[in-house]
Amino acid sequence: MAYEKVNELNLKDTELRLGLPGTEQAKEEQEVSCVRSSKRQLQSDNEEESTPPTKTQIVGWPPVRSYRKNNNSVSYVKVSMDGAPYLRKIDLKTYKNYPELLKALENMFKFTIGEYSEREGYKGSGVLPTYEDKDGDWMLVGDVPWDMFSSSCKRLRIMKGSDALVLDSAL
Amino acid sequence: MPEDDEDQSPPSDLRSQPPCSPNKSRNCISSSSSQTFPDHVLENVLENVLQFLDSRCDRNAASLVCKLWWKVEGLTRSEVFIGNCYALSPARLTQRFKRVRSLLLKGKPRFADFNLMPPDWGANIAPWVSTMAKAYPWLEKVDLKRMFVTDDDLALLAESFPGFKELILVCCEGFGTSGIAVVANKCRKLKVLDLIESEVTDDEVDWVSCFPEDVTCLESLAFDCVEAPINFKALEGLVGRSPSLRKLRLNRFVSLEELRRLLLLGAPQLTSLGTGSFSRGDQSDEQGPPDYAAAFRACKSVVCLSGFRELMPEYLPAILPVCANLTSLNFSYANISPDMFKPIIHSCHKLQIFWALDSICDEGLQAVAATCKELRELRIFPFDPREDSEGPVSELGLQAISEGCRKLESLLYFCQRMTNAALIAMSHNCPELTVFRLCIMGRHRPDHVTGKAMDEGFGAIVKNCKKLTRLAVSGLLTDQAFRYMGEYGKLIRTLSVAFAGDSDMALRHVLEGCPRLQKLEIRDSPFGDVALRSGMHRYYNMRFVWMSACSLSMGCCKDVARAMPNLVVEVIGSDDDDENREFVETLYMYRSLDGPRKDAPQFVTIL
C-alpha cells in the first residue's frame, strides 16, 4: 500500500545519491532501492497520521515507543444530528470499526440506525450517517475501509427526517 | 537466625515441602553420618554466612574465591539476574544455581522498541519456563523485560509453580488477556501482577473475574497498558477482597466515576495509584458534578500517582489533596497546559520522580524547579514526536531545572532546541547525575544560539558529572564530543548514539576509553570497520554492541566473529535481500557461554 503511494510522488527528484547531478546510474535499481528503503520506513510508521509527502520519515526517530505515540494522537470530530439543539464531539480513535462507531452514535443521540449494505446504504430507519471528508465532500459512512474513513473524516452529520428519506429512496 | 527455624524441612528434598529458606541444612546434614566432617561443617557455615549476601556483585565476587565457595554460593543464590537471555542456555542456569526463587531476565535490545528490528527476532521465554518448571518447583518470581511471552508460556508458568508470587512483564509482547486470565486463576499465592508498557492482545476474556473468589494475597496489580475493557464490577469485588493491595494501576477503560468508587472502597491502603482514563463517560449529572476530590482525600497513603490516560483537565484539581504527599507523579500521557499544571505542581514539595509531556512548556518546568527541591528523576516526553514539531520545551526549561533541582540524578529530555550553555550549567549544578539522556529531535541540530556543535555541552556533562553511568547524546556532534566521552566517561556503562560523529575516530575514542562500558547502541553514524576492530580487546567484557545503519562491511564482521569465538555476531537484514549491499544493515553482537542460539529467524545471519 505504502509502496504505491511512494511511486506516485516521483521521489527521484528528492532522492539522495552519490552520483554527480545528471548522471543516471542504473536507473531501475536506484528507484527500487530508494523505494524499498522508503517502504520500510513508511511501513513502520503505520500508526502515524499521513505525513507531508516530501519528507521521508526516519524509522524509530525520535526514539519514542509506539504506545506513547498512539496515546497522544487524538482525533476528535464534531457530530451533528439533524434536529438536535447542540453538537457533540467524539474521538474516532476510540473505535476500531463501524459497528462500534454506529453503536456509540446510537447511544449518544438515542436513535436506531438501519442496516448497512453496500448497494443500498442504510435501509429502513430514515436515519443516514454522513461525514465530511478531507476534500470537503459529504460521504455516506460505511463505504470505505474503516482506517481510511477514520483518517479522512473531519466531521459527522446524522441526517434525519425528510432529507434522509429523499436520499434513502434515491440510493 | 537460621537456628531458630527448626520446623523447616531439608532443602535437598524439594518434593516434600517448600522450604522457606534454602539454608536450613544444619540439623539434617549433621545428623547423617559423614566421613568428610570438616567439609560439611565448612559448607554449613558458609551457607549460613552467604545467605546474607544479597547483592549480586558481592555474590559474584564470593563465587570466585575457591571451588567450595563457588559451589555453596551456587546453592544459596535465590535471585538470579540475566541481562541477556542469549548469553547462556537455560540448562546452564539450572546446573549452576540449584535453589532459585526469583529470576530477572532481559531479552531484546532496546533499539527493538523503535522498530529497528523486524518482529519475531526471538527472546522467547518458552525454553526458560520449561527448564525451570523441572528444576525450580518453588520458583516465586519472574521479572521479564523485552521478552516474547505467549499465552501457553503463561499457562505453563501458572501450572508449574505452586508457590508463584510475582509476575512482572515489562515491554513484553506475544500474549493476551487469556494468558493473564490463567495466571490470575491458577496462581493462588499471587502477590504481584504487574504488566508494564507491554503489548497485550484483547482476547475478549474477562480476566479480572478469573481471580479466585476468596480473599487474595494481591499487593500490586498494574494493568495500565492493557488495551481492553475490563469488567468493572469484578474489579470492585477484587479490590474489596484484597486487603493487602497497595499498588493499583488501572487502564484507560476505567472512567473517573469508576475510579471514584474504587477509591472510596480501598483508598486508605493504597500507596501507588494509576488513575485510568481520568475522564467521564457519557453520564448526565444528576446532582451536579460528583466530588472527586473527596475520593482523593481518602487516599491518605498514596505517594505515587500515574494514569491520566484521557485526561479531562477540568477535573485535574481533584488530585490536590494528595499532592503534598507525592514522591512520584507521572503525567506523561496527559496533554496539560502550563496554566492547568502550575497550581498542581505548586503543592508537590516532596516530589522525587516526575514524568510529563512537553505540553507543560518551559514555564511548567520553571514551576517544577521552584517547588520540587527533592527531585531525583525527570522525564519529559514529546507530545508531538516528530522531527519538525514545534517543541515547547528548550534550554530554558533545562536551565531552570538545573538551578532548582540540585539533587537531580536522572534525566530524560526531548526537545527541539538546546544550547551548550544549558548543558554546561547543568553539569555544574547537578553533580549527582548518573543518567543523562538528551534527545534533540531534529537530527544534527547545533546549539541554536551559537550555531556550534553540541560537543562542549556534552563534554561538560561527562567531565563534571563524575557519577555518570548512562549517557544518550544527540544534536550535532563531532568527533571531539566522543574524545571527551572516552577520556572522562570513567563510569559510563551504557551509551546511546544516533546521527552523530564524523569518522571512525569518534567510536575509537569511546572503545579505547570508557573503561566500564557494557552496553553500546549506535545508529546512523559514520563508523566503520576500523572503529569496530579497535574494540576487539573488550567485547568479551561487554553485554552487547548494537550498530545499525553505520558503515560496517560484512567482511569485517566476519573477521570479528572468527577472532572471537565466544561472541555471537548477528547480522540482521532488512526486508530486501540485497546481496550487493555495501554495508551491513544491523550488527548486534554479544558474548555467550553456550554459542549461537538455535532459534534465529531467517532474517538473522549468525557469523
From TrEMBL, chain A:
Residue intervals passing through the bilayer: none
Pfam families assigned: AUX_IAA
Stretches the record annotates as Disordered: 1-57
InterPro entries hit by this protein: AUX/IAA_dom, AUX_IAA, PB1-like
Subcellular localization(s) per the UniProt record: Nucleus
Keywords: Auxin signaling pathway, Nucleus, Repressor, Transcription, Transcription regulation
Main localisation: nucleus
Keyword Transcription: yes
PROSITE patterns: PB1
Comp. bias (Basic and acidic residues): 1-16
Ranges for domain PB1: 74-161
Subunit structure of this chain's protein: Homodimers and heterodimers.
Similarity field: Belongs to the Aux/IAA family.
Described function: Aux/IAA proteins are short-lived transcriptional factors that function as repressors of early auxin response genes at low auxin concentrations.
PANTHER family tied to this protein: AUXIN-RESPONSIVE PROTEIN IAA17 (PTHR31734), AUXIN-RESPONSIVE PROTEIN IAA2 (PTHR31734:SF222)
Descriptive protein name: Auxin-responsive protein
Encoding gene per record: A03p046000.1_BraROA
TrEMBL record, chain B:
SUPFAM superfamilies reported for this sequence: F-box domain, RNI-like
Origin superkingdom: Eukaryota
Name under which the protein is recorded: F-box domain-containing protein
Record keyword Repeat present: no
COI1 F-box domain ranges (all copies): 39-78
PANTHER family attached to this UniProt entry: F-BOX/TPR REPEAT PROTEIN POF3, TRANSPORT INHIBITOR RESPONSE 1-LIKE PROTEIN
Annotated Transport inhibitor response domain residues: 98-144
UniProtKB keywords: Auxin signaling pathway
Sequence segments annotated as region (Disordered): 1-35
InterPro entries reported for this sequence: COI1_F-box, F-box-like_dom_sf, Leu-rich_rpt_Cys-con_subtyp, LRR_dom_sf, Transp_inhibit
Source species: Brassica rapa subsp. trilocularis
